[in-house]
């Protein structure tokens, strides 16, 4: 049984506003299974819009499918358009204002690269007054190229481009009726992240404990997420072995460019392009220390962005052959190690803070106070801590700050320790 439609209220409000103001073209993109189609269908029902999902195949089959899906728009037509020029000429004859969504538009671009120019002419000169088209796609790279590349015919044509973001931990717990203040609930969330389809699969499996979720979603034969990275990479047309090898290497602990190059036994200069591709497509995040320029690549660290993919490459891939031999305690330790990193990321995002590192010193979160010369430094712990434990760690943070290069440029306003209970409260606020 699927979930009721949850959240996405801000996206729907914005779509309503744009259509009311006579937008001609809206664009939505985001990774597969994040809920784009559900959002669109729910919204179109309230607006009386029509929907078609593009298929992969020859142009004639794609057009035939769309004509069937859009029969209420076109009526009974005996002769099918032979190409996209004829299709949009036919669409121009629809006199009543319409709201039309073409889902997975990149499938059409793959088969017919000229469709962007054809659509541009239609939007500029022929679209029925007060009508609107909505294009969506799972290939974030292709959608960005279509809408933002300097040579793209659709550059500047979209009235708004939305990137659909993963849903929050709070909605995960609400959907699966889990206790959001329970560390174990967060461990389960950290395995799949904010992708609603994965939540539905957890519900289907009838599991709640994180070790059970890991078993059913990853480690059993033919599991739901056994091939997930390959599907997501394919969506972005990343087929070369090097990007996947980079992900495997980062997952196993190599964060610096030099470390990745050493592990792969490839000159670092050969990794610049594939790393850039992985960053731009959202698979990898490039971190730099607080206060350092993003251009200082020597100090940059790379990590896998999505929690599910991070678990896949950090834990599933290295341990899949031995997982069944591990004790429950060993499995839980691996999951907790992963969950702690995911929680730290979310707390850092909550405060809009950054990591900091130098030789022998590292801070989880660094952020400025209103006074740009004063810093708040935080440590995140994936455990419940006593006041005494927190005080000990705070003293250690203060001593590290005095020894760090930051102390030569900033003063320490205060330091804090955020344990798992504190962190979960922040995520729910």
Question: Could you outline the blueprint of secondary structure elements for this entry?
Answer:
Blueprint: H1 9-20, E1 25-29, H2 36-47, E2 50-53, H3 59-69, H4 71-74, H5 84-92, E3 99-103, H6 106-111, H7 115-126, E4 132-137, H8 140-148, E5 160-163, H9 169-176, H10 183-192, H11 196-205, H12 210-219, H13 228-235, H14 241-251, H15 257-264, H16 272-280, E6 284-287, E7 301-304, H17 307-319, H18 328-351, E8 354-358, E9 361-368, E10 374-380, H19 387-403, E11 411-418, H20 420-428
Parallel strand pairs: 1-4, 1-5, 2-3, 3-4, 10-11
Antiparallel strand pairs: 6-7, 8-9, 9-10
Helix pairs in contact: 5-7, 10-12, 10-18, 14-17, 17-18, 18-20
Descriptive report:
This protein is an alpha/beta fold. The protein has 3 domains: 9-163, Rossmann fold, CATH 3.40.50; 237-320, Orthogonal Bundle (Arc Repressor Mutant, subunit A), CATH 1.10.10; 352-428, no CATH class. The protein has 20 helices and 11 strands. The chain has a 5-stranded parallel beta sheet with strand order 2-3-4-1-5, with helices on both faces. α17 runs antiparallel to α18. The longest helix has 24 residues, at 328-351. It is globular. The two termini are 29 Å apart.
Characteristics of this structure?
alpha/beta; Arc Repressor Mutant, subunit A; 429 residues; 49% helix; four-stranded mixed beta sheet; 3 domains
